[in-house]
Predict the structure.
Amino acid sequence: GQNIDQPTEMTATEGAIVQINCTYQTSGFNGLFWYQQHAGEAPTFLSYNVLDGLEEKGRFSSFLSRSKGYSYLLLKELQMKDSASYLCAGMDSNYQLIWGAGTKLIIKP
Amino acid sequence: AAGVIQSPRHLIKEKRETATLKCYPIPRHDTVYWYQQGPGQDPQFLISFYEKMQSDKGSIPDRFSAQQFSDYHSELNMSSLELGDSALYFCASSLGARGGGDADTQYFGPGTRLTVL
């Protein structure tokens, strides 16, 4: 079956770094996506990885290891506005997104 | 940059009524996806369209139907509404190249919050 696993909740301190892990099992693989979602709002696209390695975009970076079925989202210099849910989603062979349940990130001052 | 537009943003209906949600994709995007999201849940894929044809079907109830029109906008029609249909309904669009890469990235609209009383 298809499955995405990520922690339910994480807490970090403003200004610090946090890494949100995601493991995936999909039927075929056409990439791994990370989205940010604030409560009651739409998911916002953060990053896409299809090849192994690290993709850096400002304060956010995303890593993929296809052999391990593993990805992480790294957030640096955390700001209060980064408090949100972070959704990991794998794209299967039919180009459908298989979603994780999301990681709720709580930032404390 | 233009984003996905959804209307209405909020909708209140009674049980057994019907509702129509509209979605206008990002210009040049020919693929539209509909999702339902309950509180604290991940988005549940309902249905998608590519070039005005249904491309994939997820957990869409038989009471719901959808279509994509010649201008690529899409409508989700919901009938015999039930209390459990109360949720956020998101539409997303992509270039839909299905060749992998950024062209398959889905961009979400702001959502329609449907409340069934």
